[in-house]
Amino acid sequence: MEKKLLIVDDESHIRMLIEQTLEDLEDEGVELLFADNGQKALEIIQKEKPNLVFLDVMMPIMNGMEVCQKVKKELNLTEVYIILLTAKGQEVDRQNGLEMGADRYMTKPFDPDEMLSIAEEILNV
User: 67 in a domain, yes or no?
Assistant: First the structure.
């Protein structure tokens, strides 16, 4: 079964950075999907059911916390693994993210090697 990974960030250079970090996964049969706002992310998640989502918190239209809450609590897509990405590393933000249903939390700037190894572990590639 093909694995899918969704990268969500409103800043194109960050999406590109994450894509470059994770592009080797494509050799393992992982399809990379992209969204530049929370609304688009939600649509893609509902349609494609990605295995893993790297989800930026601070975004227009719908922020990462709202997307996470909708996916996990309303749509009950618990098999979608969500990692929130944020520039704010305060414990209270981390706690909020986990309460919204996020499986994990990463602080920007992230370590590309760490991001890749987490993705490999979750996608089992």
Answer: yes
